[in-house]
Amino acid sequence: MENYTMEGRTYRYYGQEAPLYPFGYGLSYTTFRYRDLVLSPPVLPICANLSVSVVLENTGLRDSEEVVQLYLRWEQSSVPVPRWQLVAFRRVAVLAGQETKLSFQVLAEQRAVWVQDWRLEPGTFTLFAGGQQPGQKTRAPSEVLSARFGVTGTARPLRGC
């Protein structure tokens, strides 16, 4: 095999074509609402980690669990990257009518791209938080919130942080 590119060979690199059953696909016995997605800081140095918080509310009549998923999208990159990449997830039990605030850390290494070595690049990124992949079409409603953040500095190898 001479061509090791993942383009067209895995769902992460299919371009605009959606997979038949995206990650997080499924139904629930209740409904959830996401709100107050906060990224801190909104602009961070190239080697810094990102703090994320989001509020999850069970708006249904039954106690249930939700798998909260965070996805990262590079707005511009020097090399091909996935449309979005899963960077964190957590299964959370929420009682009917209750809410909980969740906190996550997105590590600098999760923004690294492969350019003969793992590298961190400055630029603009979008973070998605919800109960499913961004853009997923399902019969059960599930919100996916998004917020942008910036990374400043000069590109460098990940091991240089």
Characterization of the model:
- The chain is mainly beta and 161 residues long.
- The protein has a single domain (27-160), classed as Immunoglobulin-like (Sandwich), CATH 2.60.40.10.
- Helix content is 0%, strand content 46%.
- It has no helices and 11 strands.
- The protein has strands spanning 32-40, 43-45, 50-58, 64-74, 85-94, 99-106, 113-114, 118-120, 123-130, 144-152, 156-157.
- The chain has a 5-stranded mixed sheet with strand order 2-10-9-4-5, with no helix packed on it.
- Strand 7 (113-114) and strand 8 form a beta hairpin.
- The two termini are 34 Å apart.
- The mean pLDDT is 87.
Briefly say what this structure is.
It contains no helices and eleven strands. It has 161 residues and is mostly beta strands.
Summing up helix and strand content along with how strands pair, one would put the structural category as mainly beta
Average residue-wise pLDDT = 87
Low-confidence stretches: none
Q: Separation of termini?
A: 34 Å
**Main β sheet profile:** 5 strands, mixed
Draw up the topology in text.
Blueprint: E1 32-40, E2 43-45, E3 50-58, E4 64-74, E5 85-94, E6 99-106, E7 113-114, E8 118-120, E9 123-130, E10 144-152, E11 156-157
Parallel strand pairs: 2-10
Antiparallel strand pairs: 1-3, 3-6, 4-5, 4-9, 7-8, 8-11, 9-10
